[in-house]
Amino acid sequence: MLRRLRHLQCLILMMISFGIWAEPNNSIHDDKVNIGVQTITFFDSERETPIITEIFYPADPKVKAFIPRDVWKREPEARDAEFSKLKRKYPLILFSHGSLGSRLDSVWFMYALVKAGYMVASVDHYGDTWNLTLPKITLQPWLRAKDISFALRALLNHPAFKDHINPEAIGFAGLSQGGLTGIWLAGGEANIYPKPTLDNKAMIDPNLPIDEAMIDGIHYSVGRKNYNDPLIKAFFLMAPDYGFVFDAKGLSKIEKPIYLISGDEDKVVPIQLNILHFAKYINRHQLTILPKAGHFVFLNEPTERGGAVLLPELITDHPSVNRHKVHKQIEQEAVHFFNKQLRKESS
What we know:
Strand order of the largest sheet: 5-2-3-7-6-10-11-12-13
Low-confidence stretches: 11-31
Shape: globular
Helix content: 25-40%
CATH superfamily: Alpha/Beta hydrolase fold, catalytic domain
Largest sheet: 9 strands, mixed
CATH topology: Rossmann fold
Mean pLDDT: 91
Strand content: 15-25%
Radius of gyration: 19 Å
Structural class: alpha/beta
Order of helices and strands: HEEEEEEHEEEHHEHHEHEHEHHH
Number of strands: 13
Number of helices: 11
Distance between the termini: 38 Å
Number of domains: 1
């Protein structure tokens, strides 16, 4: 379902001028915290995979900032600005988007963390984005964990960023299949990961050109390996999916703190089969269920232009749900969680 919606969204967005994603208007940011943004493409030579990463950070407040034109609401960003001089090292949060999504789908979350004094690195998962979909890649979601681990180490060694990151304070956040990515990185083992069948819509998007030969060409035992990343200390997971590939034994291996959050009206990733399953077997977890909220409440709010071109499923919430207010609640929970786990602040 999620991949089908993303596939249709891709067709719509491809008809929009590419400039809509980056062209600034004349709105200048004058708040105390400037949001710096840089785009870096790392390259994993072992897998021959480019990893486009959007990096958000506290920037020099004297630099002018602009609101990018977009179908999603954005805040003023200081493109390629220098870091703020107020602090030398920051906690770092890695972010993983959902299936056929984008590193900018939940940019509201990045802004909130930067304002709270964090750096955020949001990764595009090569071959599993709305503008670049490689069917064989979508059959191997464990590659996402490798993307995140590679991007993290690339950042820690990058001359422009390494001196600004506190290597002892690294966290992770993910949405939907990005949440699954977090379960792997936290040390969960998907030891009942099955070989998919063509009629398994939970694992295969019927809109993608996938056949038996492609399925047979992949070794699914790789999905049952342990992808624990020792550098990542805490995980904030929004509507994580693929609960059916983890049993009690695989989830009990997770020893790191996990924050789980989902909407009780999620029709894409039902909570009974997913987040409640994870909560049942992960020891160190916190759980929040948002009333009447659906799966896409975690995406950005649309602009007026976005309301005209984006699929209604992506931007329409239950009448009782105010997406902006839900985001504010999630921001507070995320900042409190990461402050406690990475900055060791008291409750």
